[in-house]
């Protein structure tokens, strides 16, 4: 979809050894960006994934381990990357429980990984972007950054916080060639979600198509999953010159969910 207009740029994508993060990394690499992949593990599969991505797109790809629940490791990730022209804050976890039963450690972990990590990486990346005279920050928020669901207190709070952080970052960089925006996906067809479909079919005694439409995509009016490629291309667009005056805002990729 995009020509290689990001050649010479380096993109750091947090939480990117699977799912949305990996999909975004693929589309940025296809547009010519060198990539830094990240997760909290550090095994041969992680580094093999980086090699595969590099080979597929003809760019430089490195894998750097960093635990996004720890602020010092978030900042160290950016320092180890060297260059950081594009920062995609994607790392996230989820837990579902009523507020009175929500474990305190789960709350702390979700806020740390889904929200605080984006603050730490952004704080470390901005000086590099200012030195380079150009930068793009894209925060992967959620439809839950704009609306809410029961039993997701920590996730909804964190994603609303990400949207707020996006606005502040956009304002603080408004007079520079740096933008910051949040992409707010609805339900995305990742390998994790795909793996949940058979169990959901059994639980509701429904066929695949019915369980997707009536259960999994109940709140998504299009009744279609968002794809990781669509999210990746949205991120690539936000890195283009066409998006130079789009900053401090949200882009919903949710099949109409937040229009309700």
TrEMBL record:
GO terms for molecular function: 3-hydroxybutyrate dehydrogenase activity. SUPFAM superfamilies: NAD(P)-binding Rossmann-fold domains. Keywords: Oxidoreductase. The keyword Oxidoreductase applies. GO terms for biological process: monocarboxylic acid metabolic process. Its EC number is 1.1.1.30. InterPro entries: 3-OHbutyrate_DH, NAD(P)-bd_dom_sf, Sc_DH/Rdtase_CS, SDR, SDR_fam. Coiled coil: none annotated. It holds the Pfam family adh_short_C2. NCBIfam families: PHB_DH (TIGR01963), PRK12429.1 (NF009093). Belongs to the short-chain dehydrogenases/reductases (SDR) family. This is 3-hydroxybutyrate dehydrogenase.
């Amino acid at each position: 979809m995009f020509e290689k207009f990001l050649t010479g740029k380096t993109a750091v994508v947090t939480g990117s050894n699977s799912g949305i993060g990996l999909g975004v990394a693929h589309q940025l690499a296809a547009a010519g960006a060198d990539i830094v992949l990240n997760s909290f593990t550090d095994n041969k599969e992680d580094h093999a994934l980086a090699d595969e991505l590099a080979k597929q797109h003809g760019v430089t790809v490195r894998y750097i381990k960093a635990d996004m629940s720890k602020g010092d490791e978030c900042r160290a990730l950016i320092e180890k990357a060297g260059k950081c022209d594009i920062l995609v804050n994607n790392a996230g976890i989820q837990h579902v429980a009523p507020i009175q039963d929500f474990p305190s450690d789960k709350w702390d972990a979700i806020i740390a990984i889904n929200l605080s990590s984006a603050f730490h990486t952004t704080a470390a990346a901005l000086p590099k972007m200012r030195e380079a005279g150009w930068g793009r920050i894209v925060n992967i928020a959620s439809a839950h950054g704009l609306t809410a669901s029961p039993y997701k207190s920590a996730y909804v709070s964190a994603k609303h916080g990400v949207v707020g952080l996006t606005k502040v970052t956009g304002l603080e960089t408004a007079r520079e060639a740096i933008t910051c925006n949040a992409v707010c996906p609805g339900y995305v067809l990742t390998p994790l979600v795909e793996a949940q479909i058979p169990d959901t079919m059994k639980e509701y005694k429904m066929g695949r198509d019915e369980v997707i439409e009536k259960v999994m995509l109940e709140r998504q009016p299009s009744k279609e999953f968002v794809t990781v490629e669509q999210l990746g291309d949205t991120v690539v667009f936000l890195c283009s010159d066409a998006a130079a005056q789009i900053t401090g805002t949200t882009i919903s990729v949710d099949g109409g969910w937040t229009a309700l």
